[in-house]
Amino acid sequence: RRAALERIELDTDHFRGNAPGACSIEYCDVTDGTDHDAAPNAWNPLLPQTPLQPHARFRWTSEIAQRTATHVRLNIFPDGGVARLRVFGRLAAR
After folding, report:
1. CB–CB of 77/22 below 8 Å?
2. How far apart are CA 28 and CA 2, in angstroms?
3. By C-alpha distance, which of 25, 37, 32, 19 is closest to 79?
Protein backbone atom coordinates (compact mmCIF):
# COMPACT_ATOMS: atom_id res chain seq x y z
CA ARG A 1 0.00 0.00 0.00
CA ARG A 2 1.03 3.57 -0.60
CA ALA A 3 1.89 5.67 2.48
CA ALA A 4 3.10 9.12 3.43
CA LEU A 5 6.27 8.44 5.43
CA GLU A 6 6.55 10.01 8.89
CA ARG A 7 9.31 8.25 10.81
CA ILE A 8 11.90 5.50 10.46
CA GLU A 9 13.51 3.67 13.38
CA LEU A 10 16.49 1.33 13.14
CA ASP A 11 17.60 -0.79 16.06
CA THR A 12 21.02 -2.44 16.47
CA ASP A 13 20.32 -3.67 20.03
CA HIS A 14 22.24 -6.80 21.06
CA PHE A 15 24.71 -6.45 18.17
CA ARG A 16 27.74 -5.07 20.03
CA GLY A 17 30.36 -6.88 17.97
CA ASN A 18 28.51 -7.36 14.70
CA ALA A 19 26.66 -4.09 14.05
CA PRO A 20 26.92 -2.43 10.64
CA GLY A 21 29.12 0.65 10.38
CA ALA A 22 26.62 2.64 8.31
CA CYS A 23 23.29 2.42 6.52
CA SER A 24 21.37 4.12 3.76
CA ILE A 25 17.67 3.90 3.00
CA GLU A 26 15.98 4.12 -0.39
CA TYR A 27 12.33 4.29 -1.39
CA CYS A 28 10.18 3.95 -4.47
CA ASP A 29 6.62 4.93 -5.23
CA VAL A 30 5.31 2.42 -7.76
CA THR A 31 1.66 3.12 -8.46
CA ASP A 32 1.26 1.84 -12.01
CA GLY A 33 1.59 -1.87 -11.15
CA THR A 34 5.15 -2.33 -12.45
CA ASP A 35 7.57 -4.48 -10.51
CA HIS A 36 9.81 -2.33 -8.29
CA ASP A 37 12.79 -4.67 -8.88
CA ALA A 38 12.37 -4.48 -12.65
CA ALA A 39 12.67 -0.68 -12.58
CA PRO A 40 16.11 0.14 -11.11
CA ASN A 41 15.57 3.87 -11.71
CA ALA A 42 12.50 3.77 -9.49
CA TRP A 43 14.62 3.76 -6.29
CA ASN A 44 15.39 7.18 -4.78
CA PRO A 45 17.57 8.05 -1.79
CA LEU A 46 15.57 8.62 1.38
CA LEU A 47 18.48 8.72 3.85
CA PRO A 48 22.08 9.10 2.65
CA GLN A 49 24.78 6.79 4.01
CA THR A 50 24.74 7.48 7.75
CA PRO A 51 27.13 6.14 10.43
CA LEU A 52 25.67 3.71 12.98
CA GLN A 53 26.76 2.55 16.43
CA PRO A 54 26.44 -0.89 17.98
CA HIS A 55 23.71 -1.60 20.55
CA ALA A 56 21.75 1.60 19.81
CA ARG A 57 18.45 2.88 18.44
CA PHE A 58 18.23 5.49 15.69
CA ARG A 59 15.26 7.64 14.61
CA TRP A 60 14.83 9.84 11.53
CA THR A 61 11.86 12.13 10.97
CA SER A 62 12.73 15.42 9.24
CA GLU A 63 14.92 13.65 6.69
CA ILE A 64 11.95 11.73 5.29
CA ALA A 65 9.20 14.35 5.50
CA GLN A 66 6.94 14.84 2.50
CA ARG A 67 7.80 11.50 0.86
CA THR A 68 5.23 9.00 -0.37
CA ALA A 69 6.32 5.40 -0.92
CA THR A 70 5.11 1.92 -1.69
CA HIS A 71 8.47 0.24 -0.92
CA VAL A 72 11.44 0.99 1.36
CA ARG A 73 14.87 -0.66 1.09
CA LEU A 74 17.61 -0.76 3.76
CA ASN A 75 21.28 -0.97 2.73
CA ILE A 76 23.92 -1.71 5.38
CA PHE A 77 27.69 -1.24 5.07
CA PRO A 78 29.43 -3.60 5.77
CA ASP A 79 27.11 -6.49 6.53
CA GLY A 80 26.15 -6.62 10.17
CA GLY A 81 23.32 -7.22 12.56
CA VAL A 82 20.16 -5.15 12.59
CA ALA A 83 17.59 -6.11 15.19
CA ARG A 84 14.68 -4.16 13.72
CA LEU A 85 13.67 -1.67 11.05
CA ARG A 86 10.36 0.13 11.58
CA VAL A 87 8.76 2.44 9.03
CA PHE A 88 5.86 4.59 10.23
CA GLY A 89 3.43 6.48 8.02
CA ARG A 90 -0.15 7.15 7.10
CA LEU A 91 -2.04 5.55 4.25
CA ALA A 92 -2.07 7.86 1.25
CA ALA A 93 -4.77 8.32 -1.33
CA ARG A 94 -4.42 6.01 -4.29
Report:
1. yes
2. 10
3. 19
